[in-house]
Amino acid sequence: MRIPQGTIVAMLTPFDNDGKINEIEVRKLVNFLISKGVDGIFPVSSCGEYTHLDMSERKFLIDIVVDEARGRVDIIPGSGATCYHQSIEIANYAKARGCAGVVLHGPYFFKNTEEVVEGHLRKVAESVDIPIFLYNIPAFANEVTPAMAERLCALPNVVGIKDSSGNMVNVMNLLEMTRKVNPNFKVLVGAEEIFLPALLMGGKGCMTATAGIMPEFMVGIYRACMEGNINLAYNLQFAILPLIREMKSVNFPQGFKEAMSIRGIEMGPPKMNYPPPALAKIADLKERLRIEMASLLNSYFPQSELRYNPVDLPLKSKYQYPSAYVEAKNAKKFFDCEMCGMCEGDRVALECLKINMGDKENIVTSSNNNQISESDIEKIVSEVVKRVMKESS
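The structure corresponding to this sequence follows.
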């Protein structure tokens, strides 16, 4: 099994003015990244605002990136979700599309215990046949600790971890603890600021947004380190730090999106509703970023143009934009679904009850065809609980 490593881009997602994925700009971005020598692309990422996308849009984004990359680099999409069913669904889809692996963080929104977080990760890993990079991003999801990684890396398809804690102590513990279980386990960093220190201590690469915005520097750091030119890697690492601080100075990930647009990729309007003072701050930041990015490229990579605009790259939309994700009525949503139907809304819940209980007479519908009464809901819950208890006894 070949395991991706090196400079992997946590890909930002270009949107159009209606807030939909911009297929043309996604294709343009993929070609920009490949032209700069990156080793892989991580779409459906945190900085790519995947939480704003429904399941069909996430698959749509994977389709575009895989199609445009044409096997030139590894594609490792994110499979994060609040429940393991959706992570498994995305991982299986990525496998079918020929992706090199998936990135899997802990469940988010709910604050879960460590046992539950590890159980979530283990359930996904044991249910799919594709390499998995664990993803520790404690700012946004339940933490994946070094102890969890040490235990999980014994699974054959858990091949690495992206650590976005920004904590070098955490990275060191990951390196030391996992190598005893799986010497081939790859520790990648998600914090741009510690890319070189992690490499020097045995890290195998990065998955970062800056790798997509200033790939010259992140690819340069990795290659210089691999070639033993530590002085050059040192200079590149320090040179990029002020720009990273600037991009992080406004609401995440907007600073990174503004920088990406400076490179010639149209990112579309913000997905969040920024008040006028915040928009003014962002506009001011963009001008500072433009000056700083131009200066950095001129100083270290004078052959690189600030704005990517290839005239010989005709791009066009290939796929129809997906409609809202709707499951077939009366079909199981997940492989181990109890068929309660509650995740699909009231009407489907009633249909599922009819199928499971054979009780067409005693299920009372309200006058509104799109809703059921509180008593109906209580009946649904009661019947499902009785059945589950009976089956488990």
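The CA atoms of residues 17 and 268 lie 6 Å apart.
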